[in-house]
Write a structure and sequence with these properties.
Number of domains: 2
Helix content: 40-55%
Strand content: 15-25%
Largest sheet: 8 strands, mixed
Structural class: alpha+beta
CATH architecture of the largest domain: Beta Barrel
Shape: globular
Radius of gyration: 25 Å
């Protein structure tokens, strides 16, 4: 049943985004009329009461069309954050407005200059004049289009909270940060002694640290969905082009080198699709181990997108480098996606650190052989230096390598 719903949602999305024209800028109210912003909003607040699985379908189609839309900032970040907060009249009102497209909340959960994304970008201090907000967050998606900004901050007690701030509040700055990708709008959000009302400080419904981690994983997987969509679009466009472009009197798709290149693209995209599907499923089901699947999906799908689009540009020949081909739009978007919410290298380091920590715990419990215990206990998982006796020499070998004598 879910598959049928997703297929129908996908078909509607392609039709709707296809009407956006060559600029690829669909009208936000048109998307809101289709119910996209309210997919994950509870039914009691005029939403569809769906899950992240349905949102992921829209994200992939937005990537496939390279659409210029604030969906990432408003729905993935803004609405995703609101649904994790304790119910309150102001929160519920904002969530209801966002579901219908009347409001555009955008959340700043991490500083784009901090690749680890482990610290709150803002802090709330108590002064004689009340609560004051300080901090900065760079490369916040769609912040310039926000009707309300939801800023992750530490309260005076050091507890992570969300500060609801008007975009034009005194002391708050929202400056556009131009990037090569023209399909996204990023901004630097700064707060210098911004007044915050006590009623505008909202707390998370569950464990703050765990909730923030899930929100960041959600953002990473959302970008992975976008990268998967644009990878699929470029693969399809390249195969179609190879069938009609002729050289030496035959379609270039008949040449073995082109066949192998397209086959390699297909393999990469297929692996990315499986990893993204797994991450989406775990996030939708609130699996506590979704963070591993999120890092695997983000690192592979976004790295794959850059490779696939680069190969698509190459296989399109000279036409691929022209402005008219449109391939450059996908390449710039893929390159930006690779950096948003953690680069592939950052996510792989995160995975490696997690598995190294697990190996260390298991090793110290006595369940691993001594050699693996030494490996797990060594810095960064490197092989420890061993002393071996060289058969033809009395000098010990401390290089950790097999003697060549």
């Amino acid at each position: 049943m879910d598959a049928e719903i997703h297929d129908e949602l996908r078909a509607v999305a392609r039709d709707l985004l296809g009407k956006a024209g060559p600029a690829g800028r669909p009208d936000w109210q048109l998307l809101a009329g289709a119910g996209w912003p309210g997919l994950e909003v509870p039914g009691a607040l005029d939403g569809a009461d769906a899950t992240f699985a349905e949102t992921a379908v829209i994200l992939a189609e937005l990537g496939r069309a390279a659409a210029r839309s604030p969906y990432l900032g408003i729905v993935v970040l803004g609405i995703g954050t609101l649904t994790q907060l304790e119910p309150a009249p102001d929160r519920d009102k904002l969530l209801r407005e966002a579901a219908t497209g009347a409001g555009a909340p955008v959340a700043a959960l991490a500083d784009g200059d901090d690749e680890s994304g482990t610290s709150a970008p803002f802090r709330i201090e108590r002064s004689a004049r009340g609560l004051r907000l300080h901090g900065r967050a760079a490369f916040v998606p769609d912040a310039a289009q926000a009707s309300r900004l939801l800023l992750l901050a530490l309260d005076p007690g050091g507890v992570p909270v969300i500060a609801d701030v008007e975009p034009h509040a005194p002391g708050l700055g929202v400056a556009a940060q131009p990037v090569l990708d023209a399909t996204r709008r990023l901004a630097l959000v700064t707060a210098d002694n911004v007044e915050v009302r006590q009623t505008s400080v909202w707390r998370f419904a569950g464990d703050p640290q765990g909730t923030i981690r899930r929100l960041l994983d959600r953002a990473a997987v959302a970008v992975a969905c976008d990268s998967l969509g644009l990878s699929e679009a470029m693969l399809a466009a390249t195969v179609a082009y190879a069938k009609v472009r002729e050289q030496f009197g035959r379609p270039i798709g008949s040449f073995q080198a082109v066949k192998h290149a397209c086959a390699d693209m297909l393999v990469q995209v297929s692996v990315a699709r499986e990893l993204v599907a797994q991450a989406v499923s775990q996030l939708a089901e609130h699996d506590p181990h979704a963070t591993v699947a999120a890092s695997m999906a983000k690192s592979h799908a976004c790295g794959t997108a850059v490779d696939v689009v680069g190969k698509a540009m190459q296989l399109h020949g000279g036409m691929g480098y022209t402005w008219e081909s449109g391939v450059h739009v996908y390449l710039k978007r893929a390159a930006l996606n690779r950096s948003l919410f953690g680069s592939p290298a950052a996510h792989r380091r995160r995975l490696a650190g997690r598995y190294l920590a697990q190996s260390t715990v298991i090793a110290r419990s006595g369940q691993l052989p001594a050699a693996r215990l030494a490996f797990a206990s060594s810095p960064a998982g490197t092989s420890p230096t061993r002393t071996t006796e060289c058969p033809s020499s009395s000098r010990p070998n401390t290089s950790g390598q097999i003697s060549q004598h």
